[in-house]
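_Backbone structure tokens_
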Amino acid sequence: MARDPILTFTDKGIYCPAGDFFIDPWRPVDRALITHGHADHARPGHARYLATDLAAPVMRHRLGDICLETIGYGEKLNLGSALVSFHPAGHVPGSAQIRVEVAGEVWVASGDYKLEDDGLSTPFEPVRCHSFITESTFGLPVFRWQAQKDVRAQINDWWRASIADGKTPLLGAYALGKAQRLLRLLDPEIGPILTHGAVENTNAVLRTQGIDLPDTVLVTAETKIADHPGALVLATPSAFGTPWARKFGAVSTGFASGWMQLRGVRRRRAADRGFVISDHADWEGLNAAIRGTRAENIYVTHGYMDIFTRWLNSQGLNAQVIPTEFEGETLDEAEA
């Protein structure tokens, strides 16, 4: 006799009947287990939240005075007849995969994840399970990330070249996760690093958690680029082309995203430079993560769902598409 699934897919989000909770729900619910603090996964309006202790500060910064319970990686919690634990996803600081066990059957909802150790997030750990819910943001073979040392060299060379050309380099990235990775890659010997308010506010939260970041200067209404010779400006992509950005005069624009792998995206963004770096797994990372779970059933969410699902099935896995309201990585994300 077939057993009911441990996790079901509803119009509010991923639901666990045995524990009466949702994982990353996109509509208000009573109890929400949250994988990480990005806006498409941690939304306002839930009565109760549960997240890792490392994700909590950013969530409180973004969502305000919420009813938030925290849990450490690997700790076990009984919710109804479900046994729940959170495990590192390597996506951004505090991000987690959520393991749910009921009567010996294990499901894992991975949220967003990457296998590369970025030096900021707790590195990804594969979790053995029977069923695995995976993203597929970059689920095409064309997406293969470069080594971080190579991206570091490319960005710093562009910074130097922009200054030599009399332009201010304006670099766009997510305020949470990507911006801090870039800060760790930038060479402060070249010049000062100026930041958009959304980036600097997130920096401040992460610094209070002991995350080491280089010195930055918040851009205010009084900031004059002439007072910061050789500076690079780090901002959210939504700030590009606004009066805020025009105060820097002649700029060279750069975007840091996995989407920069595609030339067409670079052209549409009219970016002077595109740097291929992502907080999501690339093609090889997605496949390696799935193999590491040894899961019998794979549920594929946001991204190249149909293509990636067909690939997994061709490899002998039992995979199916699950539509969700998660967005993955976009070029216009402006994490506040």
